[in-house]
Structures are given as C-alpha cells and as structure tokens.
Task: structure prediction
Amino acid sequence: MSDLTKLARPYAKAAFDLAREGSALSQWAQMLEATTIMVANNNVSELINNPNVSQARVAKMLVVTGGDNFTPKFVNFIRLLAENKRLLLMPEIAAMYRSLRQAEEKQLDVQVISAVKLSADQQTRMSTALTRRFEREIKLQTTVDPDLIGGAVIHAGDTVIDGSLQGELNKLAVKLADG
Result:
C-alpha cells in the first residue's frame, strides 16, 4: 500500500460517508472529479507546492472556480484538505471514492484488452459472465492490443484474468526455464 493511499483513505471514506448521508453519491463524484481536474492542472499544482502561497488561498480559488456546483459540505471538505496540506491527494481521494461508490452501488469497471476487436455479441456474453462471477453490474471497456496474439486480459477491480495467448506462452516459458 502506497503512502498516498494511506493518506488519502480517511478523506475518501469521509467524503463517501458525507455523500451517502446526503444521498448525493453522484453529486460528490462530480465535485471530486472537477476538483481533481483542477488540482492536476500544472499551474494549480505549482501553486499548491509553492511555500509562498497559502493552502487556504488555493482552496478559495478552487471553491470560486467550482462555484454553485460545489455544496457547502464539499467546500468545507476542500478547506479541510487545505488545512491539512492534502489538496494534492485529490486524484487518489477521487479514485478511492469511485471504488467505494461502485461497491455501494454494486458496480464494477472492467477493462478488457483483446488481440482483436470484440463483437457486440462477445461483449454482451463477457459482460453477462462477469456479472455472474462478481455479482455486480459490469461497466465494460474494451481496447485492442495485437501483441497479445490471441485471447484477452481482463482487469476487474483487483482481479486480473489473463486468458491471452501471450500470457500462456509466458507461463510455458517459465515452466520450461524451471525445468
């Protein structure tokens, strides 16, 4: 577990709890994403890292930029991050929040990397099988990587399923090397 993860976890959990209490999971997700985009901007991150600029001033700039899209509780959340010099954790906080929300809503983002483009029927069958396996609504994203030669690699949360021909060849090479 990275230091960023350890630092971000309590803030992500607090954001999630506030959002759930207010039945505003979607709204908080949008506010967190908007703030993440702002913080990721080079000029903003330079301000955050500038010892001559107060974190309160940066927080105020973020709040003004967010305008009416930011609720009072979210504004307080940003101020708390600034007080604790944690504004740069926003991308990690937003990612953890997404995971907490998906678990709450029984959803899972799944990335499928295949050797060839999957047909609509293949995507539907894969989504159905993954829904049964993980007991969650699956949001499937597909990409093509011809280096896989054949098959696919599936990334579902913390689970990786390597059903690619390249993966099988790698396993065979390891077995042969171990002799």
